[in-house]
């Protein structure tokens, strides 16, 4: 990452299970929070990648009067796909705030965020879901062998349209989600991810979802870098979608 944002630790840790990875790092701004960001990190669902990928964003949002809940979860390479899916559901249930909630997922975290939101019952869903360079079409990601077989590694086999859980796990196959979404990807990112975002946005709009599409200059990590113009554009889109009237980055 290119961010120069100083790292700061969370104010508290919320645990939603007994395993060490089942926790959420919570940062509460000094001013009254205007909204709450639930952050879901990526890393192609592999255990070496952790929630610290989202720490610069969490710290930056906190300085803009946004509370952040940065989610850690058990990765499927060590614990299986069902554990990862269950952890995201449990983490989303654990978020208890009075402000509007925005669920933001990056890369593989985009898949987890949108799938988690799609699984939530009516009445408990967030105000907005955001995919940042998300792997949001598992069928095609598996077909293209993205991340050196990341989808098959996570699922334990290749994606299959005959598997109800595989279909449920792929946001592109869950449309419409029924809540507003921002689908963003840098123009300098992996062409497949950019194509996934464009295709998903068109399909979601056709299905009746309210979708804001953001495709601007930047790469896979600019989109989570709090000093990058690409992230500033996404943040402005979130503020606009929430109707806060504040669009500065």
TrEMBL record:
Keyword presence, Hydrolase: yes
Superkingdom, natural source: Bacteria
Entry keywords, A to Z: Hydrolase
InterPro entries named among the record's database cross-references: AB_hydrolase_1, AB_hydrolase_fold, GDXG_lipolytic_enzyme
Pfam families: Abhydrolase_6
AB hydrolase-1 domain residues: 38-174
PANTHER family (alphabetical): AB HYDROLASE SUPERFAMILY PROTEIN C4A8.06C (PTHR48081), KYNURENINE FORMAMIDASE (PTHR48081:SF33)
Protein name: Acetyl esterase/lipase
Organism: Williamsia maris
